[in-house]
Amino acid sequence: MLGRVLEEIEVNVLASQAWELYRTLQLAKFIGEELPNVIEKIDVIQGDGGVGTILNIIFPPGTPGFSSYKEKFTKVDDKKRVKETEVVEGGYLDFGFSLFRVRLEIIEKGEESCITGSTIEYEVKEDAAAATNANASSMVSIQPLVMIMEAASNYLMNLKNNKNKM
C-alpha cells in the first residue's frame, strides 16, 4: 500500500534565506527549542547535516504511536532546494511500514517570497496492514510538519523584520 500527503505554506522571505534554515542541522536545533510539544529532542547520531546524517527523533511522553525513531538524510540538493529524509530504525518501521520518507522543499515564488513544502511518502507492507487490520494511512499525519513549517515561517519573518529595523 502506497501513500502520499503534502502541504505548502507561503513565506515572505527569499527562498535562499528559507533554504539556509531548512538545509542544515539548524532546523533540527530550532525544532527542539521551539516545538517541544511536537518533538522533545533531536540527537545527531552521525554527520554534519549532509547526505548520510542520522538523527534520533524523540517525541514527548504520551505521544500516540511511538516514542522515537532514527532518520537518515538521503538527499540534500542545494540547486533544487530539496532535502529528503527516511526513517531507518524504529517508529513507522516497527508498525509494518517499509518506507517513510519526508521531503522538504523550498520553491522560489517571487522576489521576496517562497513556498515551503513538506511531503510524506510511505509504503506499508501488505501483510502488516492485513495482520493489524489497521488503516496505516491513519497513522500518517502531515500536521507535525505543518507546525514546523509555520514555526519556521514565523522565525524567518522575525529575522527579516529585525534585520529591516537595523
UniProtKB/TrEMBL annotation:
One of its GO terms (cellular component) is nucleus. One of its GO terms (molecular function) is abscisic acid binding. It comes from the Eukaryota. The keyword Membrane does not apply. GO terms for biological process: abscisic acid-activated signaling pathway; alkaloid metabolic process; defense response. Residues 4-137 form the Bet v I/Major latex protein domain. Keywords: Alkaloid metabolism. CDD domains: Bet_v1-like. Transmembrane segments: none annotated. The keyword ATP-binding does not apply. Belongs to the BetVI family. This is Bet v I/Major latex protein domain-containing protein. It comes from Camellia sinensis (Tea plant).
